[in-house]
Amino acid sequence: MACKSAFKHHHFPRENILCAVRWYLRYPLSYQDVVDLLTECDISVDRATVYRWCSSLGRS
Length: 60
Prior knowledge:
mainly alpha; 60 residues
């Protein structure tokens, strides 16, 4: 049986999502700080989206 991808049905590329979650979990940043960093990389995303990514993919 094939493994289910945690990134299925996401609008953004896997690399962008992983980068946002990694920044939020590794450094003392707010969701808005992560949004600002992604904006500098020409990636437009909302704070709520970053929150959902971190909530669902940032579990240990």
